[in-house]
UniProtKB/TrEMBL annotation:
Superkingdom assignment: Bacteria
Record's keyword terms, sorted: Hydrolase, Magnesium, Metal-binding
UniProt-annotated binding residues for Mg(2+) 1: 75, 91, 94, 218
Family of this protein: Belongs to the inositol monophosphatase superfamily.
Catalysed reactions, as listed in the record: a myo-inositol phosphate + H2O = myo-inositol + phosphate; L-histidinol phosphate + H2O = L-histidinol + phosphate
GO molecular function: histidinol-phosphatase activity; inositol monophosphate 1-phosphatase activity; metal ion binding
UniProt keyword Membrane present: no
Record-linked PANTHER family: INOSITOL MONOPHOSPHATASE (PTHR20854), INOSITOL-1-MONOPHOSPHATASE-RELATED (PTHR20854:SF4)
Designated name of the protein: Inositol-1-monophosphatase
Binding annotation for Mg(2+) 2: 93
Organism taxonomic ancestry: Bacteria, Bacillati, Actinomycetota, Actinomycetes, Pseudonocardiales
Signal peptide annotation: none
CDD domains, per database record: IMPase
Cofactor: Mg(2+)
Amino acid sequence: MNGVVVAQTEALVEVAVQVAAEAAELVLATRGNAVTQVDTKSSETDVVTAADRAAEQLVRDRLAQLRPGEPVLGEEAGGTQRLDGLVWVVDPIDGTVNYLYGLPWYAVSLAAQLDGVSVAGAVVEPVSGRVWTGLRGGGAWLDGRPLRASAARRLDLSLLATGFAYATERRQRQAEVMGRVVGQVRDLRRNGAASLELCAVAAGWLDGYVEHGLNRWDWAAGALIAEEAGAVVRLPGSDPEGLGAEATFAAAPGIAEQLRAVLVEAGINQV
């Protein structure tokens, strides 16, 4: 991107960090009361708390003040379905089940997308206070330190992460596929927050990550951060004949093709 566009996008990153951090403070401060007010969505295991809704409303209110007139797409309240122009995409609590149980691996994810492509994003962890950021064409950072995907070159020595659907039948198929993969990698992790899995790939804490069935708010910020850290990223719709139409994939460049081939052989596009 040219200098003018980068400067404009940097302003979007600043807004994303500011608003996501405010939402993270609310999420952390209200956890005690919020987890007593729990509903379900797609299944009995797919939960939403009062904090999810309150955090998303805070994000919408603050964006209306800071970036008036720009549409928002969010996990809880929905919103615009158009992808043209500038759209903000928010997951108010990515990892709600972790939040419900008191596991600290959850985050507020906020990205600005231009014509459907993420150009700026922030993932803020309420418990640790860590702030992950990405700027299209400008890099990725953790608390201001530049990120770089791992230098892994051997799949058998690589650490992989995945996630599972809330629908029982699909979760079982996903487990069967990963059962065919786990013997070909160092080990497998399932931490329960897609945005943070993608950030972990960006930091080299994971060598690869794949999951089917994510929504745009799950990957909008994290995938940008992973890509800007040098990871090979495939988003839903980009590899329908291989990983499947609903796959989100990120991996260190030295193992990306190996990992993709193993996943395809294991039948990941059939889940």
